[in-house]
Amino acid sequence: MNKSTTRIADLKHHVGATVTVRAWVTHLRSKGKLGFAVMRDGTGIMQAVVVKAEVSEAAWESFTQLTQEASVALVGEVRADARAPGGFEMGVKELTLIGASPLDYPIQPKEHGIDFLLDNRTFWLRSQRQGAIMRVRHELEQAVHDFFYSRDFIRCDTPILTAAIGERAGLFSTEYFEEGPAYLAQTGQLYGEALAASLGRIYTFGPTFRAEKSKTRRHLTEFWMIEPEMAWYDQDDNMDLQEDFVRYLVERVLERRQEELKVLERDTSKLDCVSQPFMRLDYGDAVKLAQSKGSDITWGDDLGAPDEALIVDEYQRPVFVVNYPKEAKAFYMKENPADPRTVRCADLLAPEGRGEIIGGSQREDDYDKILARLTHEGLPVEAYGWYLDLRKYGTFTHSGFGLGLERTIAWICGIEHIRECIPFPRLMGRIAP
Ligand code: 4AD
Ligand code: MG
């Protein structure tokens, strides 16, 4: 960056001084010989005040030519003014147009349809609301690393091109030279398990891919997942960790991103519930509860989004639904010794009808049992040789989970649809921009 440029966020340190700001025009207004421009530079907004009598003719001429989204260099004196957007004003002395922006800039101050906004995502991202969501996303990503670093977890990166499949959801595949099909990773978990046997406690944080033909407000085809895997943790330890983790993430955003939450008009009192212990509800009881509220779910089904909403509504705080039926869940989950029809797993359901934000489980550590599950699921056993060997050479109790970043952002920010929670969403029917 040009060293002489002052960021709008830093104007508070320069009140009374003359500085240079480089920024884009968001709003323009003028009254005769007095002009106002609200400027945005990515760190904040400020109001630039241009008085015809106080600037050169060329500068006034440039001001009158400004349009929304033009980029400009401004030199002027910084004034604190509580009434100005952003709290600071610049009394402009010099104004130089850097990049003009024609009047047909696609996004105008009026209602646009969602498809139009998504087609113009590159510009939509310049809005205050989208900026606020991206900042919360950034805060959460940093919080994830801080949380695990402080607990001595090792971050490990796992492959995106894979031969083995982790989840049941749809697969994106491509031909991999002479090796046959390669799949885009649906999860880093299987590799995470191998790494846990090496390093003890690890986590992965990367993009994952699901060719799911679901057009819902909670599905992306490319999303980011945080997947910790812990040696010697059973499922209870696993849930304790998830609870600490989710509480930490929410508290961190509340502590550091109040301004963004205000822009998003988030009712933050709805997040206070994370300070209570999370509810832990057996799957069978969850089914009965949903049935009592009118759902036609029966024992054995995975919970649908409407069931999840009914269940969480009862408790008004995050709910772990524990020990699902084996058939509803992935092959790697550990059979529940207390009821072998079920597995030692939990989905964490977020409040306000958000549904599942975490899926996790203790892993099957018995070689024969996991081999039987793989075969039963019709998965190609040959591709899982290395994974099965983790049960052959020093098998170990271990557990882990996956938290979906975008669903977590949507819940914390109170965003209806997950498509706003990632810079460039990949959805069924959309791969551009
Ligand atoms: O429940 P899932 O499928 O679990 C796994 O992938 C495990 N391998 C995790 C583990 O134990 N290591 O996905 C985990 C989370 C979900 O709870 C959800 O938050 C998110 O990933 N997720 C999606 N987010 C957006 N779009 C999709 N299509 C998603 N599918 C799952
Ligand atoms: Mg799941």
UniProtKB/TrEMBL annotation:
It comes from the Bacteria. It is found in: Cytoplasm. GO terms for biological process: asparaginyl-tRNA aminoacylation. Keywords: Aminoacyl-tRNA synthetase, ATP-binding, Cytoplasm, Ligase, Nucleotide-binding, Protein biosynthesis. Pfam families: tRNA-synt_2, tRNA_anti-codon. Its EC number is 6.1.1.22. Residues 134-433 form the Aminoacyl-transfer RNA synthetases class-II family profile domain. One of its GO terms (cellular component) is cytoplasm. It is an enzyme of class 6 (ligase). InterPro entries: Aa-tRNA-synt_II (IPR004364), aa-tRNA-synth_II (IPR006195), aa-tRNA-synth_II/BPL/LPL (IPR045864), Asn-tRNA-ligase (IPR004522), Asp/Asn-tRNA-synth_IIb (IPR002312), NA-bd_OB-fold (IPR012340), NA-bd_OB_tRNA (IPR004365). Transmembrane segments: none annotated. GO terms for molecular function: asparagine-tRNA ligase activity; ATP binding; nucleic acid binding. Belongs to the class-II aminoacyl-tRNA synthetase family. HAMAP family: Asn_tRNA_synth (MF_00534). Homodimer. PANTHER family: ASPARAGINE--TRNA LIGASE, MITOCHONDRIAL-RELATED, ASPARTYL/LYSYL-TRNA SYNTHETASE. This is Asparagine--tRNA ligase.
